[in-house]
Amino acid sequence: MTQDMAVIMVGFAQSIAVFVIGMGLAQNLIYLIQLLLAAGALSSRPSIPQPGVLWRRYAEASPPIALLAPAYNEALTIVQSVRSLLSLRYPSFEVIVINDGSNDTTLQVLIDAYELKPVQRHYDQALDHQVIRGVYAAAHQPRLIVVDKENGGKADALNAGINVSRAPIFCSMDADSLLEPDALLRAVRPFVEDPERTVAVGGTVRIANGCLIRDGQVLEVRPPRNLLALLQTVEYLRAFLMARLAWSRINTLTIISGAFGLFRRARVIEVGGYTRGTVGEDMELVVKLHRLMRDQGRPYRVGFVPEPVCWTEAPEDLRVLGRQRSRWHRGALETFERHWDVMFRPRYGRLGPIGFGYIFLVDVLGPIVELLGYLLIPAFWALGVLSLNYLLAFLAVTFTFGVVISVGALALEESELRRFPRARHLLLLTAVAVLENFGYRQLNNLWRLRGLWQYLRRSQSWGTMTRKGFSPPA
């Protein structure tokens, strides 16, 4: 190799290294800002009322809510989930289960468990969806409605549920999730305190694996025994308590989890409901609501309340988890493609540079840049064209900052919410918060890259999600 070629090679390697390290620093700086914003939001929030006080303070003013639970092949968990929903402490609500053309016994299990009978229920066709085959209800359980329809996907099922519902607020959730008894009463607080501006509110989703669960209620919070579920427990803490709470504080939250979110029905109908033909329908809806309110020049709020908790079953199999993460990433890319212009239009305010800038940096560029770093920086160092300082800087950005952010999110959760009462559980989760940066994070990046490839190929597959169900541990 000539001296000129060597100089060019070194310059190229250093440019790649500076770009990758700079991107890593930018992402970690964003995570640090999120952690600080979340800490500020939690420290300044009003004290959490006890259940009795909460009821006396908010029950009378709380609007009716329709809980929409799309179900596709959920025969294993559906009865326990519905039982949990029907036992919620809330003054006025109905549970609408939408059987989205399941090819297992989901509908029959519900009919048998609740003695359902076909009923006539008038509803407006405000949103498009597949044909509804029947509506079922039970005389002894007036709060339960079951809609049976042709398969059309989750977004299509939710649109059907919105049409059938009659309450001004609806709660979208997964049929395999469990809500804490006072979750609705806590989540609805922004709608009560700021009814004119609030259009959507998200709540915390937690991992139920390992917890003691009976009759649809989480009796004792325990960490999962499965390593994959443990890793996801720390991941969910960081995603919900840190990222979503932080962005909601400055009204730039672009996603409310499909597992638990409250929406003003009229505004959702105004934006055309959930977008069909996408795997990121939850994120897509929130962005459409932002755009609607900004385009109309109306003050609004998309909020997040950390206290309400929805419990969900996390995948314990690598293939199932990989399909889920690839699908999530594909959904984020689809939403960015539809709404990328938000970044460059002043009327969308901080939603553009902060909300969509974050998506661009972390979801669009992030997986590719991280892969380049893992492959090229160690290779350049091994070939002698990159000094040790660059390699050490890359490792510090990749691992050290990751550990600090993960442990910081866990410490924030324990200091403010205290969901894990036992010290040994906290020690275990702290160890997992360190461990996730060495292998699991890199595996997640590969799944995101697969999601990018599927997005480029316009794949709309959801993949099979195998469930074990909520069974009491021995």
Supply the key terms:
alpha/beta; 12 strands
Given as residue ranges, the uncertain stretches (5+ residues, pLDDT < 50) are none
General form: globular
Distance between the termini: 67 Å
In helices, the fraction of residues equals 40-55%
- What is the overall pLDDT average? 89
Sequence of secondary-structure elements = HHEHEHEEEHEEHHEEEHEHHEHHHHH
Q: Total number of β-strand segments? A: 12
What is the structural class? Answer: alpha/beta
Describe the structure in your own words.
With 474 residues, the chain is α/β, with parallel strands linked by helices. The protein is built from 15 helices and 12 strands. The chain is globular, with a radius of gyration of 23 Å.
Summary, kept brief:
With 474 residues, this protein is of the alpha/beta class.
How would you summarize the topology of this molecule?
Layout: H1 3-44, H2 51-58, E1 65-71, H3 78-86, E2 93-100, H4 106-114, E3 117-118, E4 132-138, E5 141-149, H5 154-164, E6 169-173, E7 178-179, H6 183-187, H7 189-193, E8 198-207, E9 212-214, E10 217-220, H8 227-249, E11 260-264, H9 265-270, H10 281-295, E12 301-312, H11 318-339, H12 352-382, H13 388-416, H14 423-435, H15 440-456
Parallel strand pairs: 1-2, 1-6, 2-5, 8-12
Antiparallel strand pairs: 3-4, 4-5, 6-11, 7-12, 8-11, 9-10
Helix pairs in contact: 1-8, 1-12, 1-13, 8-13, 8-14, 10-11, 11-12, 11-15, 12-13, 12-15, 13-14
